[in-house]
Amino acid sequence: MFLTFVTFLPIFGAFFLAFLPKENEGAIKQTALAVAAADFLLSLLLWTNFDDSSHRMQFEYNISWIESWGINYHIGIDGISLLLYVMTTFLTMICVIASWDVKKHIREYMMAMLALSTGMLGVFISLDLFMFYVFWEFQLVPMYIIVGVWGGPRRVYAAVKFFIYTAVGSLLMLVAIIWIYFHIKETTGVATADILFITDHLSAPLDIQKWLWLAFFLAFAIKVPMFPFHTWLPDAHVEAPTAGSVILAGVLLKMGTYGFLRFNLPFFPQASYDFMPFIAWLSIIGIVYGALVSMVQEDLKKLVAYSSVSHLGFVMLGIFALNEYGIQGALIQNINHGISTGALFLLVGVIYDRRHTRLIKEFGGLSKQMPIYAVCFMIVALSSIGLPGMNGFVGEFLVLLGIFQVNGLWAACATSGVILAACYILWMFQRVMFLELKNPENMKLKDMNVRELITIVPLLILIFWIGLYPKPFMKTFDASVNHLVSRVSPDNFRPKQDHGAGGHHASLITKRELAKLNQKLKKTSHN
Amino acid sequence: MEPILAPKSIDLIALAPVLVLSVFAMGVLVLDLWAGKNKTLIMFVSLVGLLMTAISAFAKNPIPAFAFTDSYIVDHLSIFFTCIFTLSSAMAILLSSDYNEREEIKVGEYYALILLCTVGMIVLASSTDMIMIFLGIEIVSICLYVLAGFKRDDPVSNEAALKYFLLGAFATGFLLYGMTLVYGSTGSTNLFKIAEFVKTQGAQSNPLLLMGIVLLIIGLGFKVAAVPFHMWAPDVYQGSPTPVTAFMSVGPKAAAFAAFFRVFAETIPEMAPAWEMLLCSVAVLSMFVGNLGAIMQTNIKRMLAFSSISHAGYLLIAVIAKSSLAGSGLLFYMLTYTFTTFGAFGIIILLGRKGQENLEIENYSGLAYKHPILAISMTVFLLSLGGLPPFAGFVAKFYLFSAAMEEGFVALVIIAVLNSAISFYYYLKVVVFMYMKEPAGEFQISLAPMTLFVIIIGIIGTIDLGIFPDSIIALTNIP
């Protein structure tokens, strides 16, 4: 019940805001912040009560929703969703603060933001396919409104594109969901859309598995976004208001990677293994392409947007390494990307608020005018590159480690992304911060104010925290990742192996032992 | 050829809803003589009549019950449809009350016609005989021809009525010819006897019967405005008085689908190989033409006309799937469609005023900042029509698509969901205007209470059926 409360608190806050008088902007903002902060603190309470040692769902709540169809309101959190959940509430709070100066229709803005928060939280805790789909689609609306109403000049185009793109992918997923629902009903006699039940009982023939896999893949790949499906992202990011971009990069994209971990891998392990090279190459193309395109961008926000494509390529590569390092790396990189890219968008927002332009060539020499800003920007930029000691390094290192165990060539290609990232980020940093302070407009710029610092500093702390001591974060998902890997590990599907129950269990045990060994290895390597 | 026997017993209880409503319709006609210019009393009587009809629909027990030598049936489907019809007619009457006052339509027959049309719909949904189906369709159509032209001094309305009448009469010809052929080849107009004949005689390849079925598809396809028999819909929808448009796109369409379902899914499922492909292509064409056509529209009523064509496409999936689950899906879909459509048309009516109906989508610019509640309601209705959770439209689509999926129509479902994605484009277009454009002029909206009431019912229905659909789903389940 507690989890339900935390999840739905923001949307009740949004309803409450609707009754506040429009003119009283202070009260509106304070209420929104209070709701978001309370939600964040409550979600921290979830974290402290979370049992790291178990891969099972926790804080579960299961009640019949649509009884005639066997659809339940079933929620719960495991290691894979916990951090994403907390990050969602955290970024929502940051975004409310970051939107303090929104001029237009502030009440509606805050309402949309809070409603969006509930939509996203719902996605991460749903343990029923029907319910998951409801939340997955529902969060489109507030995000669409945020981009479309408070966005830049081409906001309508970007918003509609965002909506339609995501809708196409997810509707095909709906077809797959319905198929699975009937298949489960046929094979087990139980009419249910329960994700845990389906994970345990789904046994479709391989060729159908592949089609289903593709349907889910399309929905999530558009969301992530993976290489050929990424074109909505730069538009949405560039047009969205600052806080919209932060949420988009920080949470919405993670819904895609989360989907792969929650559905594609456990539902269709064999198909996932078969599609592994395909995904790996798409991810590598994404990494390199995203980086190269970033390099030539003139708009700061577009640069960060394309860098997201590149970073998310790493996450996908980690997931489809299908081993422990890879998935751990992917999960931590999920968080890292949310923090670093979120911070980058916030920082871009800071100068955009002052200058109303994001073109790199308009700036130069800002470090002299805004020293605190420059320092913050540098830390974030370096974390985005993956400098050791900062969060990006931990994630990318683990991902590369994981993928290297699978295929050295892939690892080599992916590593080039790290180098390219250094190129585009540092080059951009140089052009914006250093050089001469020529433009008279820039000479009047004021450094960051307290409110902006409040939004950035927590992110900076996290950057170093994860970079130097990732254990508190890593240990939340260790058990879940072990469990997941034991299900999807390629060892289960290598040729000439018995796919029957006996063989499966045998490999499961050895796999667990291997996982423990790996963990020990990692501990020593970290110390 | 056997002589038509007189019915052995006349079961008036089975016919109760039809009788009650007919009496009330006549009563309204007579009452109009004394009522003078104030039509509130007439409206009230009509609403009471509809309520009584809905109650009397449950009079017959146990179901299914047959009456009039098996040409009339009271079963789950017909009772549920009767409830939908009365609900939609009641909402149409509520919408009309303010609208008619504004547009100075001061004729009492208006309400009588809506009631009589509802009688026709009930007959249509309860008939198990070709003759009864024809009777139902004619009652419905003739009332609608008149209703479409009710704004006598408006040339667009006249055009709508004339167009609807000419094309409708033409389509009726097809329908009747189809029935004749089916009768000729099976020897009966009774659906059960036809079913029996098809089952035992294996008449699948009888060319006369096949021809008859094709003609039936044309005739019924016209009534539900499926492509390629949809040409009348946009003009008629645009030209008719707005409450009539709303009425027309829900009740009569639902009734025609009931007949469609009875004839194709319940009577001749054995002949599916013959008609399945044909209906599939009609469904797919309806979805594509409806959705792509709607994208081009600048007039919101026209846009909703095209959208209703595409919804006819989705609903045909229920007929194609044939199962009882599909029948339940059809019921649920029609119910949600009633709530959302009337809600949306209610807002369209509110936005207009005398002499300036504000039907262009542009007129919705910036509505969200002048009347946020109206804008958010319209958004809910449109997104529900598109099938976005957590609104009723989504559950309805899920229901229909599941039914089709269970019967193995995967390709059809995929086409349908892709069409849903297309449909978001034009539904969002209205949202874009409401939220993302600056107001072009002043809105002069007088919040007419009855219209608001309809919108509130629509909102409650749309959200409730979306979030807590269980009780209604349980009701729709055909045992």
Sheet of most strands of chain B: 2 strands, antiparallel
Low-confidence stretches of chain A: 496-509
SSE arrangement of chain A, N to C: HHEEHHHHHHHHHHHHHHHHHHHH
Give the overall silhouette of chain B.
globular
Q: What is the β-strand count of chain B?
A: 2
Average pLDDT value of chain B?
A: 89
Multimeric organization: heterodimer
Report the C-alpha radius of gyration of chain A, rounded: 22 Å
- Specify the helix fraction band of chain A: over 70%
Distance N terminus to C terminus of chain B? Answer: 36 Å
Biggest interface, which chains?
A-B, 35 and 32 residues
Distance between the termini of chain A: 40 Å
Q: Which structural category do the helix and sheet elements of chain A fall into?
A: mainly alpha
Chart the SSEs and their pairings:
The complex is a heterodimer of chains A (527) and B (479).
Chain A: H1 2-18, H2 25-48, E1 58-66, E2 71-77, H3 79-98, H4 106-125, H5 129-138, H6 140-150, H7 155-188, H8 195-201, H9 206-223, H10 232-239, H11 242-267, H12 269-295, H13 300-319, H14 324-355, H15 366-369, H16 371-385, H17 391-406, H18 408-433, H19 440-443, H20 450-468, H21 471-488, H22 501-526
Antiparallel strand pairs in A: 1-2
Chain B: H1 16-35, H2 40-56, E1 65-67, E2 72-74, H3 76-103, H4 109-126, H5 130-148, H6 155-186, H7 191-201, H8 207-223, H9 232-239, H10 242-267, H11 272-296, H12 300-321, H13 324-351, H14 367-370, H15 372-386, H16 392-406, H17 410-436, H18 449-467, H19 470-476
Antiparallel strand pairs in B: 1-2
Helix pairs in contact in B: 1-2, 1-4, 2-3, 3-4, 3-10, 3-13, 3-18, 4-5, 4-10, 5-6, 5-10, 6-8, 6-9, 7-10, 8-11, 9-10, 9-12, 10-12, 10-13, 11-12, 11-17, 12-13, 12-16, 12-17, 13-15, 13-16, 13-18, 15-17, 15-18, 16-18
Key phrases:
heterodimer; A: 527 residues; mainly alpha; two-stranded antiparallel ribbon; 22 helices; B: two-stranded antiparallel ribbon; 2 strands; globular
Fold and architecture overview:
The complex is a heterodimer of chains A (527) and B (479). With 527 residues, chain A is mainly alpha-helical. Chain A contains 22 helices and 2 strands. Chain A has helices spanning 2-18, 25-48, 79-98, 106-125, 129-138, 140-150, 155-188, 195-201, 206-223, 232-239, 242-267, 269-295, 300-319, 324-355, 366-369, 371-385, 391-406, 408-433, 440-443, 450-468, 471-488, 501-526, and strands at residues 58-66, 71-77. In chain A, strands 1-2 form a two-stranded antiparallel sheet. In chain A, helix 3 crosses helix 21 and helix 5 (129-138) packs antiparallel against helix 7. Chain A is globular and about 70 Å long. Mean pLDDT of chain A is 87; it is low at 496-509. With 479 residues, chain B is mostly helical. Chain B has one domain (12-476). Helices cover 75% and strands 1% of the residues of chain B. Chain B is built from 19 helices and 2 strands. Chain B has helices at residues 16-35, 40-56, 76-103, 109-126, 130-148, 155-186, 191-201, 207-223, 232-239, 242-267, 272-296, 300-321, 324-351, 367-370, 372-386, 392-406, 410-436, 449-467, 470-476, and strands at residues 65-67, 72-74. In chain B, strands 1-2 form a two-stranded antiparallel sheet. Chain B is globular and about 70 Å long. Classes of the chains: A mainly alpha (527), B mainly alpha (479).
